Amino acid sequence: MNVIPCSIKTLKGLYDISGVEVGQHFYWQIGGLQVHAQVLITSWVVIAILLGSVILAVRNPQTIPTGGQNFFEYVLEFIRDLSKTQIGEEYGPWVPFIGTMFLFIFVSNWSGALLPWKIIQLPHGELAAPTNDINTTVALALLTSVAYFYAGLSKKGLGYFGKYIQPTPILLPINILEDFTKPLSLSFRLFGNILADELVVVVLVSLVPSVVPIPVMFLGLFTSGIQALIFATLAAAYIGESMEGHH
């Protein structure tokens, strides 16, 4: 069996993805490190939007929620239901992780459609949604993989690895490769859809700038929300799968 070489090759391919560039980018040189400044800038904006919204909404919590507090309680309930459906009764500790993933991706995706990033001039490259960069989506996918393995190991210990020979040892190579291909699938799905949405809008704006791009932008908002939901749902499903030990 060529399980180990295939696994190493898959990991190397995932690492090499971080070097993929679409267009020209803006970097900061910090010591011996080259930092992708575009992603950091837009990610900080998204984080500031999330933190600012929460602080404003719940600064004066009410027994009977109204306005922003009511909205965020609804979002929390939605994330709890999603986590419980995919993970099971032990979903509680994973709500913050799933919620953070969902909200960060959701706001990042929408920022690409609603915020005029491209009017901000940079020495090189241009700003875009954080999820429009393969580095961001790979990082999110790898975090999901870490959570996936942690959930299984924390519940079952080393016995967790017994799942790789279930239902038969013959499936060992496939079961191993499955875990390495999950982050690849998560990262490419999110990156590809967000990049495609933004490219379609840009092309239509350049061709028919007055009317046609508007419905396409609304469609982009819808698909961006769906992509955030898909990522969070799959992350929760993988965690639940590792804890239950079934496929």
TrEMBL record:
Its membrane topology: Multi-pass membrane protein
InterPro entries: ATP_syn_F0_a_bact/chloroplast, ATP_synth_F0_asu, ATP_synth_F0_asu_AS, F0_ATP_A_sf
Keywords: ATP synthesis, CF(0), Chloroplast, Hydrogen ion transport, Ion transport, Membrane, Plastid, Thylakoid, Transmembrane, Transmembrane helix, Transport
TM helices/strands, residue ranges: 35-58, 94-114, 134-153, 190-212, 218-239
Highest taxon listed in the record's lineage: Eukaryota
MF terms in GO: proton-transporting ATP synthase activity, rotational mechanism
Entry function: Key component of the proton channel; it plays a direct role in the translocation of protons across the membrane.
Protein family per UniProt: Belongs to the ATPase A chain family.
Name by which UniProt lists this protein: ATP synthase subunit a, chloroplastic
Species, as recorded: Musa balbisiana (Banana)
Gene of this entry: atpI
